[in-house]
Design a protein that fits this description.
Strand order of the largest sheet: 1-2
Largest sheet: 2 strands, antiparallel
Number of strands: 2
Number of domains: 2
Order of helices and strands: HHHHHEEH
Distance between the termini: 81 Å
Shape: elongated
CATH superfamily of the largest domain: Winged helix-like DNA-binding domain superfamily/Winged helix DNA-binding domain
Oligomer: single chain
CATH topology of the largest domain: Arc Repressor Mutant, subunit A
Radius of gyration: 25 Å
CATH class of the largest domain: Mainly Alpha
Strand content: under 5%
Helix content: over 70%
């Protein structure tokens, strides 16, 4: 029984390790300039696949592949309105990525501020030593 439980736990961990987390999927989707351009266009409102494909020098099938990546990352949703399948931007994953970036930006800023204070302290000590 213990062996089965351990095996089940290992299988669950292996499955979890194989599936990227939401943040990883968001950054992976954003890594491609075409996908970023698609998101920028969707920021202005819903568009169909054909409308999204117009300014790009790639096929509608290639755009569809990009849309699947964006949809898998939760960055877009696709609706159904009769034969019109609009794509729309979903901002929640972008908000999550922004929060993650902000947290580390704040940490880096705090470290740089401490470094700057230490440099200023050392300069001040050095000036005092050199003042007659």
């Amino acid at each position: 029984m213990v062996e089965q439980t351990t095996r089940a736990r290992e299988d669950a961990q292996h499955q979890q390790d194989r599936q990227p987390d939401h943040l990883s999927r968001t950054f992976a989707a954003l890594a491609d300039p075409t996908r970023r351009a698609i998101l920028a266009r969707l920021a202005d409102g819903e568009l169909t696949v054909n409308e999204l494909a117009k300014p790009f020098n790639i096929s509608v099938q290639a755009i569809s592949k990009h849309l699947k990546v964006l949809e898998h990352a939760g960055l877009i949703t696709r609706g159904r309105d009769a034969q019109w399948r609009p794509c729309r931007l979903e901002v929640a994953p972008l908000d999550n990525a922004t929060q993650w970036i902000d947290r580390y930006r704040d940490l880096a800023r705090d470290r740089l501020d401490r470094l700057d204070r230490e440099i200023q302290r050392i300069k001040h000590l050095h000036q005092e030593e050199n003042t007659p």
